[in-house]
Specification:
- Helix content is 0%, strand content 55%.
- It contains no helices and eleven strands.
- The strands form two sheets. Strands 2, 4, 5, 6, 9, 10 and 11 form a seven-stranded mixed beta sheet that branches.
Length: 117
């Protein structure tokens, strides 16, 4: 059974940095894309950053220039480097991997990021 193991969340002051990691535990073949979503209290889940198998990267406008998505060579671990954090970045961050012709989705358990002074 495939599991995604997230780490790296926490409490940080405005302007600070955090690095999230998401590692595949088990085996996923034919990965199409991976990335990060977030959900703040009372808001819908939104896409933060995506990286496709071919290396195409897309960011939400709200994080461009501050967040960087990357992955390891095996494409089974995805990272989100978050710099210049703002209070509005406070949310639970979820990683995902999609695979196969049907773009099956696998989700992490979520990690809390809190930006506060």
């Amino acid at each position: 059974q495939v599991q995604l193991v997230e780490s790296g969340g926490g409490l940080v002051q405005p302007g600070g940095s955090l690095r999230l990691s998401c590692r595949v535990s088990g085996s996923i073949s034919d990965i199409n894309a991976s990335g990060w979503y977030r959900q703040a209290p009372g808001k819908q889940r939104e896409s933060v950053a995506t990286i496709t198998s071919g290396g195409y990267i897309e960011y939400a406008d709200s994080v461009k220039g501050r967040f960087t998505i990357s992955r390891d060579n095996a494409k089974t671990t995805v990272y989100l480097q978050m710099n210049g954090l703002k209070p509005e970045d406070t949310a639970v961050y979820y990683c995902y991997f999609s695979s196969g012709l049907e773009w099956n989705e696998h989700w992490g358990q979520g990690t809390q990021v809190t930006v506060s002074s």
